[in-house]
Amino acid sequence: MVRAVASAPGKLVILGEYAVLANAPALVMAVDRRCRAEIRTSKNSVCHLRSMAEAERQVIFRRRARSGLALVDRVVDAYPASNGAGWRGVLDSSGLHREGRKLGLGSSAAALTAWCGAWLACMGQGIAAARPDALQGFIETHKAWQGGTGSGLDVAASFHGGVIRFQLDEETGAQVDRAKMPDGVGFVSVFVRTSASTQKHLKQFRARAAESPASAAFWMDSLNRLAETGIGRAMADDADGFLDTIRDYAGGLQALGEWMGAAIFTPEHLQMLELAERFGLAYKVSGAGGGDLGLAFGVDPEALAGFRKAADERYDTINLAVDPLGLDVEIVDR
């Protein structure tokens, strides 16, 4: 029997939301909340799956049957095993949820990345990091599972870890380069106690863009230029310039939401924006908006601490840090 264990981190989008869909760059951070997967082969054709996310679920089924968990079934279809043996698996993304609600840390991408890594290793298809096509394959599998939406930046962050510059290329697919946050800039993450649907917001954007392609191009060009500028300032350790870009990108997302007819900045996020401004911090949503997480950035530790204390009186601040480790896979038994 073979037992493989894998884990992959969640993510925060620092810059590039929406514009990344139009081939703009995005600045993405892997964070120290990880999804874990474990798979071991069994001696019969029966499969056991235990998943932990918003709630715990267990299912037993025959090898060629469906588990009923779409993520698992999609991976099994994308990377079919050569033998007919059964397996026992555990998929735990509970660390990327709170009280039955997702936090907006890319839990689906982290779960898929971890499960793919464990599945490939357990079924004798190699360690994912050694496969040159692994990331693009994971992105395509995730996109198919998500109904064709999304850029894949969350999968890339889970796969690579650290801080990355992600950009789509129409010919070669995802392009990933190492990046960084500017020295001296800290952040506070705030969960506003409502979970958002990224797919819903992206579908709204695409529907609006189909109605008015010229306006969509204007918004994407504006956000593209800001993302490029912000990433350049981060790489150059221009802390003040980076914070200015965060503020400008937040304003761009608010305007984009009004054009889309979607609340990218919900009333809760607007409250946190106002609070951050009182402490001299820059604030924006992380991801497609509509709930989930917001990020307050600054260079003054006392201002960040004051914001954290005040924000905790209304919502939930989440302690997060950069996770330098991406997908980690180990074959522990043979």
How would you concisely characterize the structure shown here?
The N and C termini lie close together (6 Å). The chain has nine helices and 14 strands. A hairpin with a 3-residue loop joins strand 8 (163-169) and strand 9.
Report on the structure:
The protein has 334 residues and is of the alpha+beta class. It has two domains: 3-180 and 322-333, Ribosomal Protein S5, domain 2, CATH 3.30.230; 186-318, Alpha-Beta Plaits, CATH 3.30.70.890. Helices cover 38% and strands 27% of the residues. The protein has nine helices and 14 strands. The mean pLDDT is 92.
How are the SSEs ordered, and which strands pair?
Elements: E1 3-15, E2 26-41, E3 46-52, E4 56-62, H1 70-78, E5 87-92, E6 97-98, E7 101-102, H2 107-122, H3 134-145, H4 153-160, E8 163-169, E9 173-178, E10 186-191, H5 198-211, H6 213-235, H7 239-260, H8 267-278, E11 282-285, E12 293-298, H9 301-312, E13 316-318, E14 328-333
Parallel strand pairs: 3-5
Antiparallel strand pairs: 1-2, 1-14, 2-5, 2-8, 3-4, 6-7, 8-9, 10-12, 10-13, 11-12
How would you state the average pLDDT, rounded?
92
Question: What is the molecular shape?
Answer: globular
Helix content: 25-40%
> How many domain regions?
2
Outline the low-pLDDT stretches: none
Determine the strand fraction and express it as a percent band: 25-35%
Let me know the number of strands.
Answer: 14
* CATH architecture identity of the largest domain: 2-Layer Sandwich
Count of DSSP helices?
Answer: 9
Oligomer: single chain
Assigned CATH class of the largest domain: Alpha Beta
Question: Radius of gyration in whole Å, from Cα?
Answer: 20 Å
Structural class label: alpha+beta
